């Protein structure tokens, strides 16, 4: 009781100080070009599943402040915040909940009393009190029932100098207002003249009282969230090296309605093989849903799981929002060494390539965007990475980028191109046999350079995101079903975005967007609000002329990192890596030397050691560089492999079905593709082990007309370009006399 009385006394002192200086306060102009003495007050709804994890009928609003002038030593000696509170749906219950805002919860970050610096004596966080209608009712005695026309105010007096301080150029939490709600309603908070002498104001430690800048009135929609939450997934988010036979499971925090967990609410897509069918089951005892794929995944493929908000708890409550996550299938083979399989002619200026099983025969096929012939080349795989001659299909004007994805949910990957000269995207629907219907087009921004497909609003259908270099923005086209799309909505990024990728950068269960912005030397991150709308972009330095980007977990911490390739008027000879700190912010960029003008980058486990390596297409050197990952997101420059003229794009997939990640390069100026097969030098019989069986296989090939090794370069253990008795002698020395492991 003494503490309560002391707190009340200090609050009243603060109010007295504020009223004393009411006529001598510094008025803060509400313009951005003021003197800088004013601080800014921010109100912001707290994400229920990130900041606030209390009962579902509670929603929270964060009260934060920033110091606008870093040259001032800011601190607060007192505060009065009178709020006008209005809401829609006035027949439903709404209150500021006593329990979750009680001063006895001062250690709880949800508490209204949690703000400023933490002290060893945590009682010093008891700094705020709350009243309604001026009747002196103390906050820790009542709930404030908000009837739709309510007024209430907060008063604050810090206990010590450390509690008074707040940080420079960053938001400092003052308080959390936690509302208890019965149904959906829109709430507006505004500063008001109740009581008339105590409008919103702060008092500084130098006795200057002033009105801070603010974002009031602040309106937001709240509703009860007794929503089921996901406790665990298997595989986990961004997990690497997952077995190709793996089941997928998700465990909830409450009993679910198993009938609502089905093929339309629990969906699995793989990058190169499209939507996967499977058997879905639900165990009510463990509250776990399980997806058993009908077919194995392919080596190195990235798999995305989508759980829609149509999944219901046993009481009928839906998930608060959809939830998606991705993981990567293990590469079971590969030495990070490549040999030329073939050079395949396509049409004029191949600019982009995508690898997917287009005819669903189990082999990975290729689709190529030919910029100067305004068409798409499709090359079907005969097996073992040998391709039929290409078939071409018209697209828009200057297709610069190509993507394969199942847009109409028929189980077959369709094709999408971004057409730089016609300012649109073309959609070519798969007829079900690897041939494609005539294209349909949708307008986007100016000079679209890249397109990708992902479920951006959580409804289980794959939407489109397009990087528009000419207009400096990203177009979002939502899939309405059966590959029919809405008109585009644009979200600004920085100047001249050329490349675009998606990934859950902030680990909140939806897919964010990353672009490279060539003219500002930055990457931009658009954070998804969960409904395919995006917060203003965050910009990060990325080196000169960032051209391409891939989003992958390089250091195995479960957070997606960035690999950036470069092209500029003065060609770069490096790539840039930005490691995710785990909270959607990035460490300072690090650079690795490669070849000249590495326009394209790709990441995959090319040496089959469980982490993701990097390949670059060096357009001015006509070769590819391979960098081996040490497992922690640092790399060693390993080797170089020649291709044809001006490699403009890369892709990696298991083309020959041996479990290794092969490479495909589009060569823009020679109008062809280069196919490089991944192999282990010395593993002549292809069983992933170098032993006496390989020596026997080689002897049979050389002297008994046996089958040739596949690939033949695997038997060239002396690295002299020929397979002969010298390779037999080398193997004998390695296997029986402690010789050096075959490696060029």
Tell me what you see in this structure:
The structure is a single chain. The protein is mostly beta strands and 744 residues long. Helix content is 7%, strand content 39%. It contains five helices and 51 strands. The strands form twelve sheets. Strands 3, 5, 7, 9, 10, 11 and 13 form a seven-stranded antiparallel β-sheet that branches. Strands 6-4-8-2-1-12 form a six-stranded mixed β-sheet. A hairpin with an 8-residue loop joins strand 49 and strand 50. It is elongated, with a radius of gyration of 30 Å. Residues 1-36, 49-54, 102-141, 159-164 and 194-198 have low confidence and may be disordered.
Overall outline: elongated
Proportion in β-strands: 35-45%
For the largest beta-sheet, the strand count, sense and barrel status come to: 7 strands, antiparallel
Structural class: mainly beta
What is the count of DSSP helices, taking H or I runs of 4+ residues? 5
User: Rg to the nearest angstrom?
Assistant: 30 Å
In round numbers, the mean pLDDT is 83
First-residue to last-residue Cα separation? 80 Å
Would you count the extended β strands for me?
51
Sequence stretches where pLDDT stays below 50 over 5 or more residues: 1-36, 49-54, 102-141, 159-164, 194-198
Helical coverage, percent range: under 10%
